[in-house]
Automatic annotation (TrEMBL):
The keyword Transcription applies. Binds 1 zinc ion. Its cofactor is Zn(2+). Pfam families: ATP-cone, Zn_ribbon_NrdR. PROSITE patterns: ATP_CONE (PS51161). Keywords: ATP-binding, DNA-binding, Metal-binding, Nucleotide-binding, Repressor, Transcription, Transcription regulation, Zinc, Zinc-finger. Negatively regulates transcription of bacterial ribonucleotide reductase nrd genes and operons by binding to NrdR-boxes. This is Transcriptional repressor NrdR. A zinc finger (unnamed) spans 3-34. InterPro entries: ATP-cone_dom (IPR005144), NrdR-like_N (IPR055173), RNR_NrdR-like (IPR003796).
Length: 170
């Protein structure tokens, strides 16, 4: 790392710390040439690969926007949407890949949205999974009812995402 004071091409790392829940690394550096110290911040960039093949940076704001549309008219506050977007980002980053397909981002949205609001979940899932008929809505509603009954009785039956279909813009 080049020293910002004397432009010397090398520096020594004195201290490293994680910041922003592990998303950033702050490094304290020392220049062997002039002896001055400076701080650098490194951030792991997460990219989303769209269906068209275009790559763009991951955006928590886009997650919030899509979820906000699904929650329109529902009793869901902005803090809950922000927390959901944070959970989605953590889930996607936990995969450890620098590039993630947009489909995987959509899959990461479904479970926390189901817990947040079932009607919003159905709205989002109907677009994400490309529901073509009332039967598909009925199957998803039945799966939600089974999961609710299982929660009440203490048995877990996860709602499995349907493969294929078109993914909403994330």
């Amino acid at each position: 790392m080049r020293c910002p004071y004397c432009r010397h091409a090398d520096s020594r790392v004195v201290d490293s710390r994680e910041a922003d829940d592990g998303q950033l690394i702050r490094r304290r550096r020392s220049c062997p040439e002039c002896g001055k110290r400076f701080t650098t911040v490194e951030e792991a960039v997460l990219a989303v690969v769209k269906r068209s093949g275009v790559t763009e940076p991951f955006s928590r704001a886009k997650i919030m926007s899509g979820v906000r549309k699904a929650c329109q008219g529902r009793p869901v506050d902005e803090d809950s949407i922000a927390l959901l977007a944070q959970k989605v980002e953590e889930t996607v980053r936990a995969k450890g890949a620098a590039e993630v397909p947009s489909h995987e981002v959509g899959l990461a949205i479904l479970p926390p949205l189901r817990e947040l609001d079932q009607v919003a979940y159905l709205r989002f899932a109907s677009v994400y999974k490309s529901f073509d008929s009332l039967d598909e809505f009925e199957k998803e509603i039945s799966a939600l009812r089974e999961a609710a009954t299982a929660r009440e009785t203490g048995v877990r039956h996860p709602v499995t995402p349907r493969s294929g279909g078109r993914a909403p813009r994330v």
